[in-house]
Amino acid sequence: MSELTIYQRITKFFRRTILRTFPSCKEIVHVISASLDRPLTLRERFLMKLHLFACKPCVRYLDQSAFVSQAIKIMDEREKLDLFAGSLSDSARSRIKSALATAS
Question: How many domains does the chain have?
Fold first, then answer.
């Protein structure tokens, strides 16, 4: 057996153990959302980082949430009101589409 195979097995074992032992994805989603609004406690940061080591879908959720949060921060107030009212201008729609296309 090669070292890479042993390394992969050990990593897989630790990831499974982490996901079975520590908070679920559902709980980590709440922590990720909270991290966008406030500083996390040491315990929350530790649990989130440990979970993110083992769970790639939650890493993607964190990246997507951070992207949306940053996008909202750079929008002007009129665009935010239009967004939440459900009526974006054509120029705003095209800017959002191009930003999403370049982020992928």
Answer: 1
